[in-house]
Structures are given as C-alpha cells and as structure tokens.
C-alpha cells in the first residue's frame, strides 16, 4: 500500500480533488479523495489536515452530502475525515453535527468508528462548549444503541485529557456512575475509559463522590476502573517529584 507522509502531498491530493469537483461535480471530488487518499496509508493527523483543507472550499450546503458519501466508502480514513468535517461544523450547526455523528457511529457498528468519530465530534464539543454538550450527553445516556453509550465515555476521556475544567467534570462523573449498571463489553470499555481518566486527572472529585461510587448499585467493574485511574495519578505524581 502506498504511503502518504507529508502535508505537501496532502495539499496536492486535495487540490486535485478540488479540480475534479469543479469540473465534474462533488461525486468526482469524492471519488478522487477515495482513490488518492483513503486507499493509501496515511497517519490520522495528516487525514485531519486533509479534512480541514477540504473544508476550505466545499460549500456548506454540500458538506453533509460529502460526509454521507465518505462514510459509505467504509474506508478507515473516511471516519477521520468525517469527524473533522463535523467538528468544523460545530460552531454553526452544533446539535446537527452531534446528531450526524451519532448516526454515523451507529451505522459503523464498530468500536473504532465510535472512538474515531466520538473523540473528534462529541469529545471536541464537550471540550469547547461543555454547557451545550453536557445536556446532550445526558440525553444520549438513555439511547438504546451500545455505541452511543460508549461514546459518552470516549468523549469524556478526550475532553478531560485535553483540559476540561473540574467544574464540568463533576457532572460527567455522576453521569458515568449512572451508567455503571451496563453489562455490554463495549459500553463498559468506553464508560470505564472515561472513569479512569477522571480519576487520573481529578482524584479529588472521586473522593467527593466516594459514597455513590462505593454504593452497592455501582458495579465492581466501574470501581475497578476508578481504582486504576487513581493509581495512575499517584504514579505520575511520584515521577514528577
């Protein structure tokens, strides 16, 4: 498989796709991206760069058609491109972008689709607009699809790792505790990921919520994830000393 390793190559590929689109329509643009980018070996940061470059010229009215068609290719890189395109749309189309992300995650029906799109859309939304994102995550906690439940943990992990303040994290911890009764492997993986990250970065919040965490209603798998996060916090603190 051919490998793409530089932004210069990415710019050339995107420019060629743009030309195809201008000459023959957006379908030709998409085919060009698929053949020249998505079928190559490309690191995620370069794919993210390609998405931002593409967003510079794709008309707003055609952006969701572009993501629909990208997702339909089922190429791994399509999920990265789609995630960044929806991320770029969050400013003007917040709820719509999250709604679309959830549709694509459900359609993908794989953990990597959930995590790739979840971090870049819901995670970024939580980091940059927590007051708007947290109520949406609380709504999604009642969603019947396991991947959407997993995404809540994925988004929490991403936002906290990137610096989400403690004032927002307390609500997220309570939300994750409320999901600790789930039994699906993939849901537990995502929720546990978020719980570990909270414990690692904000152990004081865990201490404040110890009663709920130690409650018999909170499953042992969740408490184990919390413990792992606290251990990681202590290890990092020792290394800094």
Question: Overview of this structure, please?
Answer:
This protein is mainly alpha-helical and 241 residues long. Helices cover 80% and strands 2% of the residues. The protein contains 14 helices and two strands, in the order βααβαααααααααααα. The protein has helices at 7-24, 26-38, 44-55, 60-73, 76-89, 94-108, 111-128, 130-140, 146-161, 166-178, 185-201, 203-208, 210-213, 220-240; strands at 3-4, 41-42. The protein has a two-stranded parallel sheet. Helix 1 packs antiparallel against helix 2, helix 5 runs antiparallel to helix 6 (94-108) and helix 7 (111-128) runs antiparallel to helix 8. The chain is elongated, with a radius of gyration of 19 Å. The N and C termini lie far apart (46 Å). 41% of the residues are buried.
């Amino acid at each position: 498989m051919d490998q793409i390793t530089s932004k210069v190559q990415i710019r050339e590929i995107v420019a060629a796709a743009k030309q195809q689109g201008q000459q023959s329509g957006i379908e030709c643009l998409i085919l060009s991206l698929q053949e020249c980018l998505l079928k190559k070996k490309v690191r995620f940061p370069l794919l993210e760069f390609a998405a931002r470059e593409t967003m510079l010229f794709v008309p707003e009215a055609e952006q969701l058609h572009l993501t629909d068609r990208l997702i339909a290719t089922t190429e791994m890189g399509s999920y990265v491109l789609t995630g960044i395109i929806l991320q770029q749309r969050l400013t003007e189309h917040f709820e719509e972008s999250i709604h679309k992300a959830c549709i694509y995650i459900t359609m993908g029906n794989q953990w990597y689709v959930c995590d790739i799109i979840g971090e870049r859309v819901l995670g970024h939304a939580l980091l940059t607009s927590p007051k708007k994102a947290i109520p949406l995550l609380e709504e999604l906690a009642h969603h019947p699809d396991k991947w959407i439940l997993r995404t809540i943990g994925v988004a929490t992990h991403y936002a906290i790792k990137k610096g989400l303040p403690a004032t927002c994290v307390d609500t997220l911890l309570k939300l994750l505790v409320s999901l600790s009764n789930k039994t699906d492997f993939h849901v537990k993986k995502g929720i546990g990921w978020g719980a570990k990250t909270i414990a690692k970065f904000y152990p004081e919040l865990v201490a404040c919520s110890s009663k709920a965490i130690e409650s018999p209603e909170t499953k042992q798998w969740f408490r184990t994830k919390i413990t792992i996060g606290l251990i990681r916090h202590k290890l990092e603190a020792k290394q800094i000393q």
